[in-house]
Amino acid sequence: MAATRSRASGRGAARKTATTGTRRGAGKAAGARRPAGKAAPEPAAPGKQAVAGGQHPLMQTLYAEHRHIASVMQLLADQLAAIEAGEPVDTHVVYETMDYMVTWPDRYHHPREDLIYAHAAELDPGLADSVDTLQRDHDNTARAGREVLEQIERWRDGSLPGAGLVKSGRAYIDHLYAHMNSEEKLVFPQIEHTLGAQDWSELAADDQLRPVSDPVFGYRVQREYRNLARKLRRGVRRRVERGTMVEWLSVEALLESLEVLAMARESARNSAGDHLRAAWDDGVQMFRESALTAPWRCAGNNARLGLRLLQDVAEISRDAVDDLSRVNREHKARIRLMDS
Ligand SMILES: [Fe+2]
Ligand SMILES: [Fe+2]
Fold first, then answer.
1. Residue 142, C-beta contacts closer than 8 angstroms, at least 6 positions apart
2. Does pTM surpass 0.70?
3. Is the CB of residue 154 less than 8 Å from the CB of residue 68?
4. CA of 177 to the centre of ligand 2 (A)
5. Which residue from 50, 110, 202, 281 could staple onto 23, CB 3.0 to 4.6 Å apart?
6. What is the number of the ligand closest to the CA of 2?
7. How remote is the CA of residue 134 from the centroid of ligand 1, in Å?
8. Dist CA 91 CA 158 (whole Å)
9. How far apart are CA 24 and CA 56, in angstroms?
10. Closest ligand, as measured to the CA of 66
């Protein structure tokens, strides 16, 4: 999973793409370690690390937790955009997003990463600098998270303007995405390359790396996060509904396009039939008038009718292209309208 994020064109409409992932380590022999002095593997492209067979469950968990964090951050970004726009905001949800961050990722996700990083850095000194930076960043992130949470409380009781919260909230989100991207692009692939089956077994035996149910994304949502969980689920449902609508609109546009083409073909066929009949009728008439000169006059007449047929077909084609462009424009406009 890659927790990439880019800001949408609208102000504050933070749109991230987070997460899917390809798996790394396919074909890696169990217990394989990176030979000393060998160059580190190329970082995977964002969004390309996945969870699949062959990847240790601890790594799968880290990727999954990044996906969860990214979806919570997207929700917070949406709420901040609403605050900025003066739109109604669910203050409970705003609070719960940051409360979740300081309660869960700062208490479980980052400490677990610290343990795995430390183990990998022992085996591969080349990882030490990156690991050290990320571990210090975990402390900074936790501190920043607590500050934003305090600001949310002040904003809720009216002692902090929304603009102040929007600014610090966005800075927190940006920082967290940069942190997760750095992990997924640089450090996770190296860790997976460095740690072998025995290392993972040792790590898995550590009490601090035992699975703990996530209070929002776990099988049972904790009561204090019910607003957050509900909002996240609604967001997922909306995305699914949007997908269905887009598909439906695309099918509708396709059918209309086919109709345009069928009509164009029908028009061209009718026009050709008309010209053929006219050529026949004219030819018969010309033979009646003078059988001697008829062949020459017919040839001239047919050439003229043929040219007119080509002009008709060209006009029909132009109309069809115009109609197809219109269908395409309307299709895009409907999708834009749906997204607005
Ligand atoms: Fe981290
Ligand atoms: Fe992380």
1. 102, 106, 110
2. no
3. no
4. 10
5. 50
6. 2
7. 6
8. 12
9. 10
10. 2
